[in-house]
Amino acid sequence: MYGLINKAVEGLVRSKFGDDAWNRIRTRAGLPDEPFVSMEQYDDKTTYDLVGAASVELGAPAEAILEEFGRFWTVYTAEAGYGELMRSAGHNLPDFLRNLDQLHTRVRLSFPHLKPPSFSVSNEKAASLDLHYYSDRPGLAPLVVGLLKGLAERFSVQVTVSWRRVDGVERPHDLFHVSWTSKGGGPS
Ligand code: HEM
Fold first, then answer.
1. 51 burial class (0-12, 13-18, 19+ CB within 10 angstroms)?
2. Could you tell me the residue range of the domain that residue 44 belongs to?
3. Are residues 27 and 84 in the same domain?
C-alpha cells in the first residue's frame, strides 16, 4: 500500500503513545529508521507487520489496533491535504457511504497504482443500511468498523455496527449493518 497509510500509522502511534513506542514498534517490524514516503508503494506486508508489532508492543489485539487506525484515518486524511476530497464525498453518513468508490477513484488521480477496496450499499432505510466491503486483502474488516465510527463522529451521529462475513457467494465479502441516530436521539 502507499506510504501514506504507513505514515498515518506512525502518526497515530507517535501522537498517542510517544516516540519510544514508535521506535520499538518499527524495530520489531524489522523496518529501518527512515521516514515513509507518502507517494511510494510499499509491500502490503509492511503494513501488516506494523500492525502485528503494534499489537505486541502495546498489548492490544490487532483488531483493536486496526479499529483505532480506522477512526484516526478519517481525521488524518482531512488534515493531510485531502479535506476537500472528504467534503466532496458527502454531507451525511449515507451519502458518503454511497460515494466511497467514487472517493477512491478520485484518490487514484493522485495515486495511480492504487488498489482500493470496493463498497456497495443495499437495504437502505431511513436510519440504517447494509454496507458491502470487497477487498483482496484479508483481515481488514475491523479497519472498516473504525472507519465507520470515525465517519459517524464526522457527521455527528451515533452509530451501531454489526459485521458478518458473507461466504459461498460469487464474490465473498464482509457485510456491515450500519444504523445511526443523531446525537440528540432521533434519526438524522
Ligand atoms: C480522502 C480520503 C481517503 C484517501 C486519500 C484514501 C486513500 C487510500 C489509500 C492510499 C489506500 C491504500 C491502498 C493502496 O495503496 O493500494 C486506501 C485503502 C483503504 N481505504 Fe481509503 N482513502 C480515503 C478514505 C477512505 C474512507 C473514508 C474509507 C471508509 C470506508 C476508506 C476505506 C479504505 C480501506 C478499507 C482500505 C484498505 C485497503 C483494502 O481494503 O484493500 N478510505 N485508501
1. buried
2. 3-60
3. no
User: Which of these three, 14, 41, 60, is where a domain ends?
Assistant: 60
Task: Tell me: do 38 and 78 sit in the same domain.
Answer: no
Number of domains within the chain: 2
Look up residue 141 and give its three cell numbers. Answer: 474488516
Residues with CB under 6 A from ligand 1: 1-2, 4-5, 74, 77, 82, 85-86, 100, 103-104, 107, 111, 114-117, 135, 137, 140, 143-144, 147
Instruction: Please state the atom number of ligand 1 nearest to the C-alpha of residue 4.
Output: 10
The closest-lying atom of ligand 1 relative to the alpha carbon of residue 143 is: 35
The model scores a pTM over 0.90: yes
- Ligand 1 atom at minimum distance from 111 CA: 10
pLDDT digit string (tens) for 93-136?
999 999 999 999 999 999 999 999 999 999 999 999 999 999 99
Q: How far is CA 18 from CA 10, 12, 23, 64, 145, in A?
A: 10, 9, 9, 18, 25
**Cα 41 versus chain centre, distance:** 18
When the pLDDT of each residue in the chain is averaged and rounded to a whole number, the result is 96
